[in-house]
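A quick word before the example. In earlier lectures we treated sequence and structure as two separate objects. From today on, think of them as two lines of the same record. Here is 7,8-dihydroneopterin aldolase written that way.
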Amino acid sequence: MDYIHVKDMEFYGYHGVLAAETEIGQRFRVSLSLAVDLQQASETDELEYTVNYAEVYMICKEIVEGKPYKLIEAVAGQIAKRILTIYEGQVKGLLVEMIKPDPPIPGHYREVSVELTRGEFR
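And the structure line, produced from the sequence above:
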């Protein structure tokens, strides 16, 4: 299987359980890995045989900067669902990492994140 990786896309959204998260908002990062057969694209040099990662970026932007969710798990799930629907038959599986770099919880850590896989992925 071949993979397309789109890493560390950054967006501003209003997801969270706490009122401040939904009022003030915060940064979120998303990294994706898409399982795609890239043989024909590599042989023909034609965009139609691959997944346009500019479109994938816009899908993620629309979801993360759109409707607020309480859980980043739900945001990641929406991204996975939308990509698998739009690229049905082309994207065989995917991994979505949804990162919350500055959650309002006490302690010392770099970030919190969830990672989910769907379909045929490794």
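Notice the following. Helices lie at 19-24, 39-44, 53-64, 72-86. We will return to this example when we discuss secondary structure assignment.
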